[in-house]
Amino acid sequence: MRLLKRNLSKRILNSNAIQFILCMVVALYIRLVHFTGRWHVIRGEIPAAYWDSDKPFILVLWHGRILLMPYAWRRNGRKAHGKDRDKGKDVHMLISAHRDGQLIAKTIGRLGIHSVEGSSSKGGAAALKRMVGVLKSGDYIGITPDGPRGPRMRASGGVVALARLSGVPIIPVTCSVTRFR
């Protein structure tokens, strides 16, 4: 019975139509939380100063906090998610090439964020090269240094290597939500 459920769920998730609907619903949920929630920004002037400097940087966030980050990156001013409308710069996230990563890539794509495909075990060197190119072009990179396999909230050395190769700063950002007001 368990095997049957697993095979059925794989077939459902492999359906392009189901993926489209699922990603659209998740993106709408993220927007709903953004527009209906209260946001309290602590030390927001630090990432805002980097956005305003017109220089590329690496935005670092924990893997478990990724869903609300498109709106948490910049709460004060013209930049909310995706493209920095005044500067014409894009945000690119490093996303796994696996099926769950591709669902995340499609979801954040609906929020205007591009993805760079790769992981530490598959396509890591090529992804690193693409991210350096993105940063050299002046766009921004978002990366989760703890990755999906963990250890949770422990940074790996990949983000430091990217910063060293590209010569851009690392800006750590996080967000939390609560159902209490």
How far apart lie the N and C ends? 43 Å
Estimate percent helicity. Answer: 40-55%
Relative strand content:
5-15%
What about the largest sheet?
A: 5 strands, parallel
Per DSSP E runs of 2 or more residues, the count of β-strands stands at 5
What strand order characterises the main sheet? Answer: 3-2-4-1-5
Which structural class matches the secondary elements? Answer: alpha/beta
Average pLDDT confidence is 78
Instruction: Please trace the helix and strand order, writing H or E for each element.
Output: HHHEHEHEHEHE
Radius of gyration: 17 Å
- Number of continuous helical runs: 7
Condensed summary:
This protein has 181 residues and is α/β, with parallel strands linked by helices.
